[in-house]
Amino acid sequence: MQNMLTIISNALCRITGRNVGTRVVVSRSFADFTPQATFDIKKCDMHRLEDGPPLKAELTRDQGLQYYRTMQTVRRMELKADQLYKQKIIRGFCHLYDGQEACAAGIEAAITPSDHLITAYRAHGYTFTRGVSIKEILAELTGRKGGVAKGKGGSMHMYAPHFYGGNGIVGAQVPLGAGIALACLYQGNNQICVTLYGDGAANQGQIFESFNMAALWKLPCIFICENNKYGMGTSVERASASTDYYKRGDYIPGIRVDGMDVLCVREATKFAADHCRSGKGPIIMELQTYRYHGHSMSDPGVSYRTREEIQEVRSKSDPISLLKERMLTNNMASVEEFKEIDIEIRKQVEDAAQFATSDPEPPLEELCNHIFSNSPPLEVRGTHPWAKLKSIS
Questions:
Q1: Which of 72, 96, 192, 269 is the most buried (most CB within 10 A)?
Q2: Where are the domains of the chain?
Q3: Cβ(46)–Cβ(254) under 8 Å?
Q4: pLDDT tens sequence across 324-342
Q5: What is the β-pairing status of strands 254-258 and 45-47?
Q6: Does domain 38-362 bear CATH number 3.40.50.970?
């Protein structure tokens, strides 16, 4: 064996003109990988539709690696948030998104950056897919000046261009999403609004009022119910007389999608976006997904479901593992490549956490800034007559 290595080493020396010793490194080039593959995806259940999303999805190697990177980043970021919360560095409300990454990654892959998105309080994943950095998200969670909302919004109130939060009131973002879609229709810009809510909000009256107006005015709005099986600690079967959330629009078409498969979500969202852009009005999507953490950090998540149930979903339906296995099976990437991505993401998250714990908190004089987006400085009444607070846009 040693003689063979010596022969190979000498040959490499003659070819390259460098002394490589007896160490031979074998690496695969990009040409070794399959550049594109087609996968069978689960058929969507449909309501008031003759045709639905396709049953096959094409995936390029670059797309696959990008989706993997996005989902893995959200996963590591949420696990870091969990750690910082348990260390009491993050305080207050904190709802984590791990387990549901395919929803955010798949939706973003199917819409354009100029399209609009609004969601509920479980917003960290969408904040990232809409273009906000890990550093700004974690710094916002720790209440620091470098946070995306300058440390004054926290977990539920993060924003970006064409991303409207992060809303703390259950279901309140749905009428707002319908209003954003109305603006798109009014301006005639061919843009759509993706309006997300959970199964826990699905029984609220304001949801159905929004459906009614959106159908009357044919608003370009995709109403998406992220059904993660539990509204806080209550299972959907105990909370809803009908758990067919995609049919809840009655007169609005709907589709039910495997929300643990990023390709299913992408293709369904493309279908829904085309529906809206063609002037047919709103459409409802139900994404069947699952959260690994409890409802929020104050909920251990195992008093109303078993650890075995959570582990079964992790082992059989994890969105990151599913994509990774597809790519490995079809020779679209290597195990080593995924490991390198994982190491890179871990470092990014660690660096972001370092920033989020060392960046200063916003000073008191900035407390009231940005009450209005564009106005002259104004005085703000404080808790006592001597408080001298000002708001600067």
A1: 192
A2: 38-362, 365-392
A3: yes
A4: 999 999 999 999 999 999 9
A5: antiparallel
A6: yes
